[in-house]
């Protein structure tokens, strides 16, 4: 069996990173993001990255770290509202942005992973999303052509894996991690725990190990919160 477990994020990414590459990054906000792998990409100094991700993290966290070091050339995202540096770079013309409806982004990654180069959807018809895209009419309704996404490397965050790379995602951390893991030539995963092969219930596995080429144990993690909202303590 091919050894998939690496000692750290830098070694797991060795030989995979290059300037101008295309990355798929799992996560939603700060939930289920591959923190250790993002740090290793930052430390590598690789630049001119095109990254497909639901969002770009927040200032100084998640993919926001790569924005801060100016390593990102283009973002393909559906939501970017919590990152001031993202906003600044975009408005200054320093960052190329391809906005993509959230469901469409998930399907573009799923399609890319399934070997489907494109598909038609009604989402975005008649809006700026449709500009420059082929429009086709089916049964009297217009649909726009969206291209599948297939990257050089996918980085994802799992909860538990076995030594063969079979992954389980924890609750909402499943989000974009599952489709993006399939949408690249190489998937590198970081997980909280690795157990012996055969220890996981086959019916509980979310991502088969055939997709995971390399992985690391990234634990322990600090739980980061995007917005901390509290109410005043009631007094007698």
TrEMBL record:
GO molecular function: succinyl-CoA:3-oxo-acid CoA-transferase activity
EC number: 2.8.3.5
Keywords: Transferase
A Pfam family the protein falls into: CoA_trans
Protein's UniProt keywords contain Transferase: yes
Protein origin, superkingdom: Bacteria
PANTHER family: ACETATE COA-TRANSFERASE SUBUNIT ALPHA (PTHR13707:SF60), KETOACID-COENZYME A TRANSFERASE (PTHR13707)
Name of this chain's protein: 3-oxoacid CoA-transferase, A subunit
Annotated source species: Sphingobium chlorophenolicum L-1
